[in-house]
């Protein structure tokens, strides 16, 4: 896991220092409390957000009224970008789950900036393409790998996005309840309880105070027959 490489692939860090300053000059910095919703599924949002700190969860509601978590956005990532250059309703709900500092951009202003500045536009297209690949890969795992494979895939993705090396193990530096994990893989909390208990019994992972430490990530990769896909498309 190359955490430095992963950070360098985020949208904001692809820009030169000059264009970072230019981009920020078009937005308004705001402080947002945990529990705040930026927009809801079906809205036509007029703003796009750049995450400076905190976390924003994107989710959908299933036909039977259950929440399905799609992404967990963090520093230097965009939220609401799918509303750019189209007039379609947005397909996810965005909720701040960790007190956040965001830069809010008017959608039309940002579109005009992209038209005028090639470097910013290309950086956005590169990031958006990777983000789309990541989403496709995630749903492929959910559909083709069953609930166990979906859990293992999700844990790998969390380790790539939030993992910290701890004496050869990977500490996932984000608090997760079993229900949170269930929402990411489209199953019940009880199923997640059973699968995690099996992994704890064999010391594949351990949990303390809502934090997961993975002791043998290769176990997950072997189960999924992971190839050499770039780490930036295997994120949460």
From TrEMBL:
GO terms for molecular function: DNA binding; DNA-binding transcription factor activity. Gene3D superfamilies: Jelly Rolls, Winged helix-like DNA-binding domain superfamily/Winged helix DNA-binding domain. Keywords: Activator, DNA-binding, Transcription, Transcription regulation. One of its GO terms (cellular component) is cytosol. Residues 145-218 form the HTH crp-type domain. Signal peptide: none annotated. Residues 11-131 form the Cyclic nucleotide-binding domain. InterPro entries: cNMP-bd_dom, cNMP-bd_dom_sf, Env_Response_Regulators, HTH_CRP, RmlC-like_jellyroll, Tscrpt_reg_HTH_Crp-type_CS, WH-like_DNA-bd_sf, WH_DNA-bd_sf. This is Transcriptional regulator, Crp/Fnr family. It comes from Evansella cellulosilytica (strain ATCC 21833 / DSM 2522 / FERM P-1141 / JCM 9156 / N-4) (Bacillus cellulosilyticus).
